[in-house]
Amino acid sequence: MQNELTPERLSKLEVNERPSQAAGLRAVKVSLQHVEEYSALGDSMKALLKMNQKGGFDCPGCAWPDPDGRRSAIGEYCENGAKAIAEEATNRRVGPEWFARHSVAAMGEMTDFELGKSGRITHPMYLAPDATHYAPVSWEEAFRLIAEQLRTLDPDEAIFYTSGRASNEAAFLYQLFVRQYGTNNLPDCSNMCHESTGHALAEVLGLGKGTVTLEDVHDAELLIVVGQNPGTNHPRMLSALKECKDRGGRMISINPLPETGLMGFIDPQSPLSILKRGTDLSDLFLQVRINEDISLVRAICKLLWMEEQAAPGTVFDEEFIEAHTSGFGEWTAMLDATDFDECVAASGVPAPKIREAVDMIARSKKIVLSYAMGLTQHENSVDVIKEMVNLLLCMGAMGKPGAGICPTRGHSNVQGDRTVGVWEKLTPELRKSLQNYFNFKPPEHDGFDVVNSLKAMHEGKAKFFMGLGGNIISAVPDTVYAAKGLRQCEMTVHVSTKPNRSHVVHGKKALILPCLGRTEKDVRASGPQFVSCENSMGVVQSSQGVLEPRGPELRSEVAILCGLAAATLRGNTTVDWEEMAGNYDRIRDAIAACIPGFERYNEKVREPGGFYLPNGPRNRRFATSDGKAQFSVTDRSHHALGRDEFLMMTVRSHDQYNTTIYGMNDRYRGIHGERRVVMMSEEDMARAGFEPGASVDLSSEYDGEVRTARLFQVVPYPIPPGNVATYFPEANVLVPITRTTRGSNTPISKSVRVRVQRHKAME
Ligand SMILES: Nc1nc2c(c(=O)[nH]1)N[C@H]1C(S)=C(S)[C@@H](COP(=O)(O)OP(=O)(O)OC[C@H]3O[C@@H](n4cnc5c(=O)[nH]c(N)nc54)[C@H](O)[C@@H]3O)O[C@H]1N2
Ligand SMILES: Nc1nc2c(c(=O)[nH]1)N[C@H]1C(S)=C(S)[C@@H](COP(=O)(O)OP(=O)(O)OC[C@H]3O[C@@H](n4cnc5c(=O)[nH]c(N)nc54)[C@H](O)[C@@H]3O)O[C@H]1N2
Ligand SMILES: [Mo]
């Protein structure tokens, strides 16, 4: 994808001391630098003032909720939210002249950072077969080209991907178009993200979403934050953690890395917080080995169960267990059979620390457990999440104030996209509603998720790929394998805001359709429009851009999809696409009729703060087979590592939004100037004979097939021996397509077996 890297390109690595606290004035300063550097300061400030405010737009950064009814002066301010806006509101433009100057080959030479920094795409662009450059096309011509292609295919040969930034309105129309066209091939970024959550929680709680509200987080006596780096990825969550601590709550964090944002926080909006030099967040840090969370929680539960047996009724919530759960007997039988020492040894956490955790948990009635990608991207992730639920269930910490499970979502509307029907599986309920409301027969069989889409393209079974946002080639596992599939496609189409690697790794024909961003005004036939999004806690809110569009040719995602649907389906549709595109209230009417919980959508979404979707588990109603929350008997992880192998996780740096690279620094980890690094314990470095900064190659071997990522630099880091960490997407080439989470088919981005060897130049 990029030419072979040479050591000279890696000369800028600097490793500094890690800060002990997140946010604070430095964060404000850093984000203002981003704003100044990359966008019109005036515009970005205007945007910042409106972010997450009533009447403003939903921050495109993450899915963390805003406080109900309470807003601080500049909204819920956040460094990485500011970067996301600066990225979108940039003054730089990528117009037809830019594409004329940069051939696709030249684009391929640019790093992800350089590509993204080029600016906002202003015109629809077409890459004809064998052409060297993208050239401008009219919207109508673009739609005609795509429609023509789609009509030559069996609908199941086409793939329609969604990234989680698409609004409810766009996402609903997209799945409607795709299903009227005739396929359920609707993979989304969720497949690589919280799919394991959906599976696990649907099975054991009857709803594949979190159960808590923001107030529950504030109100908890004990917060357990597992496999998540909120200081970087959900900075506004730090305010909630601090609020909880201010009210007397305590916090345990479970992570292979001592992430700065988990340790301490200075609230940039509170002069008192700045004066007091911040709040210590974690009361207890359990440095678990990668993917040994089951071992750790099993050990904890074993001790809790022993205490409960010694003094019945003092630890577990017997009433809750009796009335609302099933499987308790099997679960405790398994605990009886569990070898505590074995679990402790596997977890990597010293037994005294585990006992400390047990003391804290046993004394708490109100417990919230939050987690993110550290739990969802392993082969046994569905089990890992069920194990977390076991812990909450025995304590009765479910469906009452201050308690529950909080899978922290990534993209700002990834949860909403799924709620309104973007899924490769079409539920019988939605099939029926679509059929009734729109009077057509949606396809019945499941479509391809992300991994199966990659396989289908690779095997030539799928020939068309469209991405509603996102950057498929950089986001998916097994980059080389995936690229071959994309390149074989007859056509690839991307609805994008900025150039990215997926425009470079293209099909025989390729189109880029530039769209408005969240921050921009969207005026349609009936006047200014707003869209809506669902946050991590099931609150649906409106989002309306405030900035002038970054170019006159840009269209909203809704308008693009309606244009495309009308061109493709022509007479063969029961939907008035033009009416939908002209007035988004009509889309919301349809959603209200088809999706449970959206009754009176148009009215409720206009209320300040939006509305909550129904959530059974929040009220102890569990839509499982027997109406009860389920205890699960799970298996601990088994990684058969060779003597020279490590378990590698791929994580985000502080300067990126998934595949969009904002900068080269990972400030909270003290790593500057370089992203091709591998974090390794000093013990392992000594054993392997690596000095700090040593150039190495990484390889992973599965079923005899070796994948290689060349030229990384070793950074000594406080990570458990046997574990290493690299950045996503640089290390995605090593993630094998052949290994995914059992049940959810999620790539195993957090537990890849790798070897680390001294760098050898290419022959
Ligand atoms: N600024 C910014 N914000 C973002 C994003 C971004 O890229 N940039 N991405 C968005 C998206 S789509 C998502 S999904 C979220 C991601 O949010 P996170 O899940 O916080 O993101 P990761 O960097 O993948 O971090 C995973 C964390 O899990 C830990 N971890 C890894 N393996 C294990 C394990 O086996 N056990 C435990 N206990 N911990 C483990 C890692 O050390 C790391 O702290 O953030 C969203 N918000
Ligand atoms: N190794 C490894 N791989 C991973 C992960 C990991 O932790 N490790 N994490 C996984 C996770 S959690 C996720 S969610 C996926 C993310 O996968 P994706 O969602 O596919 O990737 P993003 O980088 O978020 O997408 C960025 C692109 O979206 C476009 N974009 C930005 N804003 C808009 C907009 O408003 N509208 C439209 N139409 N386009 C827009 C821009 O062109 C930008 O280039 O990656 C997954 N891949
Ligand atoms: Mo994600």
Automatic annotation (TrEMBL):
It holds the Pfam family Molybdopterin. InterPro entries: Asp_de-COase-like_dom_sf, MopB_CT_YdeP, MoPterin_dinucl-bd_dom, Mopterin_OxRdtase, Mopterin_OxRdtse_a_bac, Prok_molybdopt-oxidoreductase, YdeP_MopB. Belongs to the prokaryotic molybdopterin-containing oxidoreductase family. Its cofactor is [4Fe-4S] cluster; Mo-bis(molybdopterin guanine dinucleotide). GO terms for cellular component: membrane. NCBIfam families: Fdhalpha-like. This is Formate dehydrogenase. Transmembrane segments: none annotated. Coiled coil: none annotated. Residues 120-565 form the Molybdopterin oxidoreductase domain. Residues 646-752 form the Molybdopterin dinucleotide-binding domain. Keywords: 4Fe-4S, Iron, Iron-sulfur, Metal-binding, Molybdenum, Oxidoreductase. SUPFAM superfamilies: ADC-like, Formate dehydrogenase/DMSO reductase, domains 1-3. GO terms for biological process: cellular respiration. GO terms for molecular function: 4 iron, 4 sulfur cluster binding; formate dehydrogenase (NAD+) activity; molybdenum ion binding; molybdopterin cofactor binding.
